[in-house]
Amino acid sequence: MTQLKFQQAPPPTEKDMMPTLNKVVTARNCYYYLALIERFWRGMDAMTRDQQRLYLARAEFRYFLWVRAFDAKRMPTPPLDIAFMWHTHLLSPLRSYEDLALRIPSARSVLNTNMPLENLHREKNGPTKDTLMKWERIFGATGEPYELNANNMVYGNYCNACILCKHEIRLPWTTYVGYRYGENTTPFDHPCGINRQINFLDVARMKLEYDLTPKGDTGPPVAGTLLDPSGIPRQKPNTMVPLIVPLVHIEPQNEMDYSYELQIEDKLKSLGKKYEYDANELLYAIRTCYQGNPSPFSVDLIHAVARQRKFYDAAISMDWSTANAFASAIRRYHDFLMLMKKDSSLVAVPTIEIDCAWHTHMLFSGPYRQFTRNYLERVINHDDTIPEPSLKKFTSDTCRAWTLSPTRYWIAVRKKKEILKKTFALFFEIHFIFTLL
Ligand SMILES: [Zn+2]
């Protein structure tokens, strides 16, 4: 294995000369973030495709166990697979907020806890005794090993309670993977299924059925409908949700969205135009958060991890050997946020170095939400599922916005004689934002 790039200490920085944003987007944290994803992808590269699939399916489930058991005071440093899933979830800041704050009971404290990047880096060669002790105390009864690897991941069973009838669903991991990757749809015995059988497309369907049902005095917790466009909980819940009857028979099974579309369209005929926004929101939510996704989360984390690979390949090939590389990333990220502040309709597309600082910021979910709400008046979403044609347009919009922007650090670095003056001006601006907090 070739040497890893980010497994030493971060490059030394002169105190007070490095820009930081919101206290958490620092050169050190960006470095630790790159170290985390390098360690994860190097591990993946050493596995076969089948092993990778098994690893991801188990990692997603282990992250769920992590969320369910979360208690900020008692948690160990997370193992690599859980840390990577947690990070992937946070890279969808609106969906993860819905899941952790509004949909999964008692998960809110996960959101208020920062990703322990420094501890993850410190324990890169293995967990401390303290970490293992805490793991054992919280997860010992589950039989889950601290470190998930190619040698231990085939052992044990997927085991989770049915969301509707609470009856246990238990399957060997190797069988579960087939369901999770859509390769196996064979029904297995289960008491609340049609003919007392279900497969994992049914599990996804039942998740939506469960979420369409009101709970206590809160509205139905349908993922994708709980926030307004600025990322804060809707004052007035989606009006279409309570009118929809959960579907039990869906044919073909993998077109759940189509079956609901027919019902939504039918309702709209009598309801009129004022329901159109909510109808579209609900249908989009069903398509992106429920369709084919039996996991407890609104993001299909296994497939979201796969999308992160492109970012890793691009980020790792950049030169991050000096502190200046990180300083530049942080300054440009700051300017990038300024672009979005000036034009709230702009869907800004980041460069890789900006994205590195942005990802780091999102791993501190509480500060990220607070900062973007304070300064941009909305929680900035990060969406890596934008299709290619739209992405091209948004990239060209972003380029135009950069050329019109007065805070062009990238021009400052070209004019070397002026650099000191301009750089200090920017430092001030970044620190200015940070001191306001
Ligand atoms: Zn059931």
Automatic annotation (TrEMBL):
InterPro entries in the record: GRDP-like
Superkingdom of origin organism: Eukaryota
- Short name of any one Pfam family annotated for the protein: GRDP-like
Q: What is this protein called?
A: Uncharacterized protein
